[in-house]
Amino acid sequence: MFDAPSGEFVQVAKEVALTVVEVGKYEYYMNVASNDRSFTSQVIEPEMNAVFNHDHGSLIWNYFDQNRAYSFSMVTVDAKHYEALHQGMTRAAYETLNQESWNKATVASQDYILDAYEEDVDMLPEPEMWASDEEDEEYEEEEEVEEEDDEEEDEEEDEESDKDEDEESDEDEIDKIFNRAPGSQGVKTSREVETESESESESESESESEDESEGESGAESGAGADTGSGAAKNSKLAVGYKHGRSFVVRGSRIGVFRHTDGDEIVFDTSINHVDDTRGREFTPSTMMLHEQDSALVLQDAQRPNELFKMDLEYGKVVEEWRVHEDVPTVAVAPTTKYAQMTGDRTLVGLSHNMLYRIDPRLRDNMIVQDQQQAYVTKSHFTTAAATESGAVAVGSAKGEIRLFDRLGVRAKTVLPALGEPILGIDVTSDGRYVVATCKTYLLLVDTKLPDDANGRTGFMKAFPQAQKPAPKRLQLKPEHVVYMGAPISFTPAKFNQAPDAQGSEKTIVTSTGPFVVTWNLRRVLGTGRGDAYHIKQYQDTVVADNFRFGQDRSIVVTLPNDVLSVKRSQLAKPTRESLMIRSSGSLL
Questions:
Q1: How confident is the model at residue 451 (pLDDT cuts 50, 70, 90)?
Q2: Do residues 509 and 516 lie in contact, with contact meaning Cβ atoms separated by under 8 Å?
Q3: Are 479 and 122 in contact (CB under 8 A)?
Q4: Is the Cβ–Cβ distance between 343 and 291 less than 8 Å?
Q5: 230-251 burial, b for 16+ CB within 10 Å, e for fewer?
Q6: How confident is the model over 528-539, as a mean pLDDT?
Q7: For residue 498, what is the DSSP state?
Q8: Distance (Å, rounded) from C-alpha 225 to C-alpha 177?
Q9: Which has more confidence, 162 or 564?
Q10: What are the two backbone dihedrals, phi and then psi, of residue 523, each rounded to the nearest 5 degrees?
Q11: Among residues 200, 227, 296, 209, which one has the least CA distance to residue 256?
Q12: Which letter, b or e, does each residue of 274-283 get, where b requires 16 or more Cβ atoms within 10 Å of its Cβ?
């Protein structure tokens, strides 16, 4: 059992028996007991955060009660017992999540799923174009130096934050910022206007960031609260490539934030009311930058058959797109990885069982007929992302990942469902790597076909039946979760964006609760470990996060009542001190 004060596992029994008990159809419990006592009896579910390690013949997992989190570790007596444990637990988890028999899965699918549940899975070598080991080591050394320099500044920032909270709530401060913002107006989209206004906002920006650390800057969200309610929180984030702008949804308002040359972020202006062309106010459930960052594509969850185009120059919705009378759109995505940098007016749409191109220039039915692919059975699609060539990766609520080389055809590759819903998906520019977000882990997939002379990926050609890719689960260590004190719930993970350097996405960012987490892609591929991550804690829940466009040096972090920019170098290797929830003190 993990002992939090000492930071080590301590032996509580020399011998235990782990049994998996079926208590109902596709419902399983795991019991661990010795001759003297029972240690745990719990439902087999994702929140267990189970980690299997073949080399050590071990299983580590979490258990939660009403007051705290625990982590247990057990080591099997030999390889035979480990294989029985690994397969038995994986089978129970699969049947619980998919509500179907393990035996219905093909042998290839079973191998894929077993690999996904194991920590030390070998992946194909990383691309040769990446930096050498020496360059990577130098970069890490620079990060460590920056971390040391920033420690004192972080402490000062925390003290200042505590003082601010004593004086008044974050929400009250945000409303003050919002009230002094200009009324509903457009976003400055020309360099000339930005330059002219820079001197006017400079004094305000300096005063707002005077007490902040050099590595992290905050600007209270200018998106404000819903009219009359005062209860709205920040919910969505879109990071622009043009003019250094980021956009944050707060109720029926959108805050506009400006990135400075020093990687800080400051409030710029606010679009006070998001209304359709008939003046009906709504809260955007989806927000995507479009047409060279001149527009936002918005969606109202109450009207899934429609999309709205907001012209950012005027700060209002100028077009309503009724995509299809009978096809509700559940998600949208750019047609290519960096389509937002082009004038392309079309976009990718998803319904529960259809992938299609949306062309708003068409009348009545905006789905391009020869660029749609429908499935007879409910596929429960949830999310999509495109490569630079226009290939598309699609995730589903079942946990399947489909790889399409283009719109209008069936998927070249279907990766088996682990059973947990795919909440978000992203893909590198060249399509080599896909990262899919589930609630308690990320799934990293190398799509390169093994032994393919032409270097093709699963987007271009189906994987051989017996050679499915070996997926890598990126997850937090169960013992770290003990300090964090709550189950994991990841936000959609993103690769850093690198439009000017093909194949140079090297970092992944996500968050859970008040923690922002990054993985170094090169390190994951080089070591085969999915638990080598860096982390930083905030005083409130992180609702959205992404890298600043075109680099991975700084991360935009959206809290319910704040918007921040943090240097990636400020994220550090997890320690007891960095993981303990600050507001509640010690959990032990």
A1: confident
A2: yes
A3: no
A4: yes
A5: eebbbbbbbbbbebbbbbbbbb
A6: 90
A7: -
A8: 11
A9: 564
A10: -70, -40
A11: 296
A12: bbbeeeeebb
Pairing relationship of beta strands 58-64 and 442-446 according to DSSP bridges: unpaired
Rounded to 10 deg, the angle between the 133-167 and 170-179 helix axes is 90
Q: What ranges make up the beta strands (E) of 66-210?
A: 69-75
For residue 364, what pLDDT band results from cuts at 50, 70 and 90? confident
CB atoms within 10 A of CB 210: 7
SS3 of residue 349 by DSSP: strand
Rg (CA), the chain: 24
Residue owning tokens 């500044």: 153
pLDDT tier at 500, thresholds 50, 70, 90: confident
Place of tokens 């247990």: 72
Angstrom distance (rounded) from CA 551 to CA 561 = 25
The share of the chain scoring above pLDDT 70, in percent, equals 79
The secondary structure of 537-568 as a DSSP string is E-SS---EEEEPTT-SSEEEEEETTEEEEEEG
CA–CA gap between residue 282 and residue 207 (Å, rounded): 34
| Predicted local distance difference test score (pLDDT) of residue 18 | 95
Instruction: Enter the tokens of residue 562.
Output: 């704040």
pTM given for the model = 0.84
Compute the mean pLDDT over every residue in the chain, rounded to the nearest whole number.
83
How far apart, in whole angstroms, are the C-alpha atoms of residue 515 and residue 540? Answer: 9
In contact, 433 and 505? CB cutoff 8 Å? yes
Please enumerate, as own/partner, the contacts of 188-192 that have beta carbons within 8 Å and a separation of 24 or more. 188/243, 188/268, 188/269, 189/242, 189/243, 189/293, 189/294, 189/312, 189/313, 190/243, 191/243
Q: 367 pLDDT band (50/70/90 cuts)?
A: very high
